[in-house]
Amino acid sequence: MGTEELPRKVVLVPIASGTEAMEAVMVVDVLRRAGADVTIASVEQQPCVVTLHGIKIVADMLISECVNTSYDLISIPGGVQGSIHLRDNHTLSSIVCEHTSAGRIYGATGAASALVLRDWGLLCGREATCYPSFMDRLSSSRHVELVTSRVHICEGIITGQGTGTTLDYAVTLVEQLFGKKSATDVSQQLMMRSYQKANFIDKEYNKKAWSSNCGAKVSVLVPIADGSEEMETVIIIDVLRRAKVEVVVASVSDKLEILASRKVKIVADMLLSDAAKYSYDLIVLPGGFGGAKAFAASRLLVNLLKKQSKEEKCYGATCDSPALVLQLLGLLKDKKATAFPEQCEKLLDRSAAKGRVVIDGKVITSRGFGTTLEFALGIVEKFLGHEKAMEIAKTIVFI
């Protein structure tokens, strides 16, 4: 018997200047993973949008091009300024108004529940949640009943508290579109946490202090390439920049824009050839099979990683990259590490392979999509302390 084909579902995710990149990209990534046809639409005058923390995303189209399309779901990401820009866009509001009038499902995360859905009058007589600091605004409407759950469903409206709840929110969207089995399958792929915990590093061996050797601020290089995993890329950049780490996003190809594994277009800060002129406290590789292959094929990046190791500076990778890059280059010799489950057999030492985040000396590795927030917070903890990592985790409603 052939595999039953799921019905085609069409989804709109609008973005604006100041949008929470993680809340947009994680939703797009998860829904595309589940088989949805997702359009990222810019409400700005150009497709390239500078989201919160300076992450540049190129939308699939402008919102004006979405007017005549019927969507099964519209999901609105948060971010205060981004939410305001989305709320004030008349084209988007008319699309959403027509969508809701047809009884189709919609949702919002973080500040967007209060600043967009509430202000548009789309939560009247419904229960909803939002980012904690906007709960007073949401509950000030006598027509909205505030709930404090991380993700809430009420009559086809899905709301989430914030960045740290977005994976749960996205999986809930999958369930609403495709059913519980699809949601369970995607959740298992993502390796999501089944519980909340206040420690981000599972296992640490040969414990060493991490500190900045490059100046007052910690400096981190995040290489990206066609095929890099967008969720992992954006999470790493976002969390580190929240911690005031100086992050340079560098394309290993000859162009700044890369097409990530789930077809999200991300624009690097500079080419690797320019980024290589500087030194970094940490070089960290996101996963994605295609991206990892491109990393291993980049002579310049390979030389930078080997130099980083020789100078006893920090480096790390998540998902496919620990096995397909670090192990391949001999940079995990005598090191315990983890990787994406399908790649773990390539690790010479697999004794720590089931750890979500593993550190050995100055090398940090992680399993993949659903472990990346812990991975990024683990980096913050090593450089800036557990208190700082906890502060960020609470700010994004991760714990």
TrEMBL record:
InterPro entries named in the record: Class_I_gatase-like, DJ-1, DJ-1/PfpI, Prot/Nucl_acid_deglycase
Its keywords, alphabetically, are: Repeat
Q: Does the keyword Repeat apply?
A: yes
Which Gene Ontology BP annotations are present?
glyoxal metabolic process
GO cellular component terms attached to this protein's record: cytoplasm
What stretch or stretches form a coiled coil here? none
Q: Which residues form the DJ-1/PfpI domain?
A: 11-176, 219-381
UniProt-listed SUPFAM superfamilies: Class I glutamine amidotransferase-like
Is Repeat tagged as a keyword? yes
Q: Which family does it belong to?
A: Belongs to the peptidase C56 family.
Q: What is this protein called?
A: DJ-1/PfpI domain-containing protein
Species annotation:
Deinandra increscens subsp. villosa
